[in-house]
Amino acid sequence: MAGFNLTPAEYQRLSEYIYLKTGIRFASGKEYYVATRVEKRMQALGLDSFNRYFSFIRFSPSEEEMELLINSLTVNETYFFREYNQLRCFAEEIISLLTEKLNGGRLKVWSAGCSSGEEPYTLAIILLEMLAGTGLSFEVHGTDINTSVLLKAKRGYYDERSVKDVPGDYLQKYFSKNGAAYRVLPQVKEHMRFYPLNLKDASAMEAMEGFHVIFCRNVLIYFDEQSRREAALSFYRSLMTGGFIFLGHSESMSRITNLFKPRRFKEAIIYQK
To answer: In whole angstroms, what is the distance from residue 187 CA to residue 174 CA?
Structure first.
């Protein structure tokens, strides 16, 4: 299969099918990226043409191959305590606003598009620090369409690059070093819930409810305008009244929908239901 390429028509057929299934749009300029990953999946299945592969993912009674293809196309690099200004806003301003109204309840946080788990574990560490001694409990949900990265998240083992921005005292308190790896300790993991979720799956999104905070940073940039609006509406329904959603620092909810009220804090602009 040397020199494998997708023709413009093949690329369009595949990208439109992926969009239909996931809401993720692969525009022009991504042909080589997509083709190399398709080629690896074709080799794994012993298929010698794109048409055979495309028929296989469309008509197979199982979604397994489509899942494997999406896994290979959606691997994103991340690390702990990323976009620190937003995290400080969450720690020092948002948590206190929410806990004033909890009255002994449970704070529920969702990391949407959590990749290999660095973001939701970061949120759990912050919550452990900020809620210590308050008697309040919390849970952090991490979801992603990519099932392979979720397995890594559940294991909770990370290399030195992933933890490079973790404050030293947190590294000692919430991780154990195993050779070259750092393992998230059970006192953090007991608060976590990891599971696969397609943000375009309307019925699955309806089950996501009762959240006080949603982090969906640098995820919607892969969606087209219509899919962004649909996801934003689902997030709105998932949040408790007065809840907050964090987007990436270069993203704006106001350009997607007017459902949320932008709130300016010391460190960041956050959107509130």
So the answer is: 8
